Amino acid sequence: MCSLEKRNNLWILTITGDDQNRLNPTLIESLLSTLTNLSSQSTPGSVLITTGKGRFFSNGFDLLWARASGSESAAAERLHFMVESLKPVAAALISLPMPTIAAINGHASAAGFLLAICHDYVFMRSDQGVLYMPEVNLGLPLPDYFAAVMREKIKSPVVLRDVLMAGVKIKGKEAVKLGIVDSVHDSAESTVEAALRLGEQLAGKKWVGGVYAEIRKSLYPDSCLVLGLTQKSIISKI
């Protein structure tokens, strides 16, 4: 599950799944419902901050749930279901009418890494936690929207190769040097505090959410195409 707290114009979404915040159908549905409701409540100055509870931001899809189905074919069907279910969550983040900040409190692996990088700003702790895309090591194909988002968010072909094709684990300070993360902080608490400070600064801009979302979508056309997002024509008052 996940929880949503409002502090003035800041919305704080906390992922509270199992001990690793693995993305099973229940958690994915909770995230989508929360983001959908949040989109409808957006006002000028709204900002979303997403973090996790415990040692993990999210350890990706719940492969244990998939394998518990009892057969390889059923497990593959369950995994496909989770992949397709998370796609509208990624689309909701890319199209959310407000700035978004991920405060990575611990490990962000596979779909958890994707979830974090769908945000506009990414903060990470330096003392614990890695970013990791393990699909190549697990023998799993990369979903098309994962690849599209990663290509547009990670600009260096060398870094993209190492992340997706070598399964490297990236700690906070290295992630900043590679341009994946904006800044690192000493602990989970200080990471969230930094996100709150930036959130307050962004909230003070009082940007129109719909315009902000359309500008974001224009930056990531390949991701929007795969996610089924189209640009809307917005006429602002001058």
From TrEMBL:
<dbReference type="GO" id="GO:0006635">
    <property type="term" value="P:fatty acid beta-oxidation"/>
</dbReference>
<keyword id="KW-0443">Lipid metabolism</keyword>
<dbReference type="Pfam" id="PF00378">
    <property type="entry name" value="ECH_1"/>
</dbReference>
<dbReference type="InterPro" id="IPR029045">
    <property type="entry name" value="ClpP/crotonase-like_dom_sf"/>
</dbReference>
<dbReference type="GO" id="GO:0005777">
    <property type="term" value="C:peroxisome"/>
</dbReference>
<comment type="pathway">
    <text>Lipid metabolism; fatty acid beta-oxidation.</text>
</comment>
<dbReference type="GO" id="GO:0004165">
    <property type="term" value="F:delta(3)-delta(2)-enoyl-CoA isomerase activity"/>
</dbReference>
<comment type="similarity">
    <text>Belongs to the enoyl-CoA hydratase/isomerase family.</text>
</comment>
<protein>
    <recommendedName>
        <fullName>Delta(3)-Delta(2)-enoyl-CoA isomerase</fullName>
        <ecNumber>5.3.3.8</ecNumber>
    </recommendedName>
</protein>
<dbReference type="InterPro" id="IPR001753">
    <property type="entry name" value="Enoyl-CoA_hydra/iso"/>
</dbReference>
